[in-house]
Amino acid sequence: MTLWDAVILGLVQGLTEFLPVSSSAHLRIVGELMGGVDPGAAFTAITQIGTETAVLVYFRRDIARILRAWFGSLRGRVPRSDHDARMGWYVILGSLPIVVLGLLFQDTIESVFRNLWLIAGTLAGFALILGWADKRGAKSKPLSELNARDGVIFGFAQALALIPGVSRSGGTITAGLFMGYTREAAARYSFLLAIPAVLGSGLFQLVKSVEEPGGVGLVPTAVATVVAFFTGYLVIIAFLKIVSTYSYRPFVYYRLGLAALVVVLLLTGVLSPLGSSA
Predict the structure, then answer these.
(1) CA-CA distance, 156 to 10, in Å (whole number)?
(2) Number of domains into which the chain is organized
């Protein structure tokens, strides 16, 4: 992979990570179009460190407040009923499904799940589910009404993103809409919930890539990660403004259109379902 390729993939990661369109699917598709090479699950996970760092920077005050309250509740200085203290526990609770399932299905995630036929199907299928949730959801509950049960449901919805094409933010936002949360509340919790899982996965893959050299390479991956950070930060700002005003319908149409395009490119031989190793 050239540095220019890395810049392009970093832009793709930053532009799509927080939108309900699946960044892993886009990296898989764009990588294939750029030369028939699948950048791989490890590259995807590591570049997500860049976008999650953007989340840390953008939500730094919220994160610091939640951490202070959570640690304070452990020492008895803050009531366990405090909203921020409970949020800390809910983020931990909601992170467990993706950690456990990610470890159990690691080999499948890095191989079978990256088949472009499967990705086309998940892009289309979850587009319809997102559209249904956005239309039927009550969209009335603020994030302050989050409880343990909802936190677990959010967590399992996030875990669906282990399959490229589902979308981590799309899964959690869809679950939030079905449970009656506002679009903005679902989106904000999606950002917070992703921090432990995505950073953990990225750091795990980073250490693994150092111990087992090969694949894309550290320099292109680092370049893509930095580009993803700056791009992702701008997307966070724009996305939160969009969801507080508009519906998710444009994303539904986009996912359906992308799925149809992938199917056409597969049928015409432009794309290979399994690609080749990086």
Answers:
(1) 27
(2) 1
Q: pLDDT tens-digit profile of 41-74?
A: 778 888 989 999 999 999 999 999 999 999 999 9
Residue 272 lies in a domain: no
Tokens of residue 63, six digits: 């994160």
Least confident of 142-146, 217-221, 224-228, 272-276: 272-276
Name the pTM for this structure: 0.87
Is residue 25 one of the residues assigned to a domain? yes
b vs e for 4-39, b when ≥16 Cβ sit within 10 Å of the residue's Cβ? ebbebbbbbbbbbbbbbbbbbbbbbbbbbebeebbb
Q: Which residue range is the domain that position 103 belongs to?
A: 3-267
Q: What is the 3-state secondary structure (H, E, C) of 77-108?
A: CCCCCCHHHHHHHHHHHHHHHHHHHHHHCHHH
d(CA 222, CA 23) in angstroms, rounded, equals 17
**Phi, psi for 141 (deg, rounded to 5):** -80, 130
Q: Are 240 and 232 in contact (CB under 8 A)?
A: no
Q: Which residue has the tokens 């701008």?
A: 234
Both tokens of 208, joined, read 């693994």
In-domain check, residue 274: no
pLDDT in tens, 111-161: 788 899 999 999 999 999 999 999 988 788 999 999 999 999 999 999 998
Phi, psi of 37 (to 5 degrees): -115, 125
- The reply to whether 39 falls in a domain is yes
